[in-house]
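ESCALATION

Customer reports they have been waiting on this structure for their group meeting. Please prioritize. Original submission:
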Amino acid sequence: MNSVRSPMAEAIARHRLPQSIFVASAGVRAGDRDPFVDAVLAEEGMAMEDHQPRTVDDLEDDYFDLIVTLAPEAHHAALEFTRSMAVDVEYWPTPDPTVISGTRDQIMTAYRDVRERLKARMAERFAVGTPEMDAD
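Update from on-call: job pushed to the front of the queue and completed.
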């Protein structure tokens, strides 16, 4: 629903990747902004700024070199969307932290886990944003 994993990935990518790289997140369905995403991003000096959840149809541009999906439903939709396009689609299985219940600390731990997984995956895939590079 473009309210948790994808917007978090967009914010991390904007923070860690060169500004020359266009980054946009979109979901299969529109959702509502999630305050836990804002909280775990703020812990590391990142923000989603004015991001509002959106769908693929809401994107102004439909030309991409790479589409990364984080959930099975999104992956299937991306494969269908790109059937006649020359674009790479990668699936990065990412847990849904919204299924966690409990105390605020337990929920925040689940969201932090997603944030850390996304940071690690981006560092691995794009060889940027690693701690060594952040120190430069």
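Sent to customer with the following note: The chain has one domain: 5-128.
Escalation resolved.
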